[in-house]
Design goal:
Blueprint: E1 2-5, H1 23-40, E2 44-47, E3 56-57, E4 63-64, H2 66-80, E5 84-89, H3 105-123, E6 129-134, E7 154-156, E8 168-170, H4 172-182
Parallel strand pairs: 5-6
Antiparallel strand pairs: 1-2, 3-4, 7-8
């Protein structure tokens, strides 16, 4: 184990969702989330030796930083001492359907890293995490009005121009995540026959 202090230009987004909050409260929470990200940039963690310092990014330039999720969880828990529930965590990838199958190993690797760091936050940092929800179960129209950026475990045959049969195809990650859920998050190996 080594001790590292992460300094990155951008950490994982931290969204705090309030069901019955006024607009002013939501604005206050958003500013607070930004403040937590700035504070958490200098947090130190014990992580496995050989941890890469340079972060990968997806095709849209979003940094992939599983340790950043752990840092954010630790900072939020230390500040509020309340159990946390991760309600959105996922990655947009340009998936390709080939012969009725989608091999999305990049998505599986993304979730492996993030789930491992949530587990480390629980085991090593004492963070109380109630749950974890992946974003999202099926592909959907991106906020940029495109289908090319796909988030789900289930591929939907739909193109940016609106063409496609809307037929659904479970991706490799669908079967992997099903196995992860069945093992209560303990089996993260990518040993799925697809």
């Amino acid at each position: 184990m080594q001790r590292i202090c992460r300094r990155s230009k951008r950490l994982q987004s931290v969204w705090i969702i309030l069901r019955s909050a006024t607009t002013s409260r939501i604005r206050r929470v958003r500013r607070l989330a930004v403040r937590i990200s700035l504070i958490s940039r200098t947090k130190c963690l014990r992580v496995p030796t050989g941890m890469p310092i340079r972060m990968k990014a997806n095709a849209w330039g979003w940094q992939i930083d599983p340790v950043g999720l752990r840092v954010a969880l630790k900072a939020l828990y230390e500040r509020y001492h309340k159990p946390l529930f991760i309600v959105e965590n996922g990655i947009g990838i340009d998936d390709r359907l080939e012969n009725g199958k989608v091999y999305d190993d990049e998505r599986i690797a993304y979730y492996q890293g993030h789930i491992r760091n949530v587990t480390d936050a629980i085991d090593y940092d004492g963070v109380e995490v109630l749950g974890y929800l992946a974003w999202s179960p099926i592909d959907f129209l991106s906020s940029h009005k495109e289908m090319r950026k796909r988030y789900g475990f289930v591929y939907i045959d739909r193109n940016d121009d609106g063409t496609g049969s809307l037929e659904r195809f479970p991706k490799k990650s669908y079967y992997w995540y099903k196995k992860v859920i069945a093992s209560d998050g303990t089996d993260l190996e990518d040993d799925i026959e697809y």
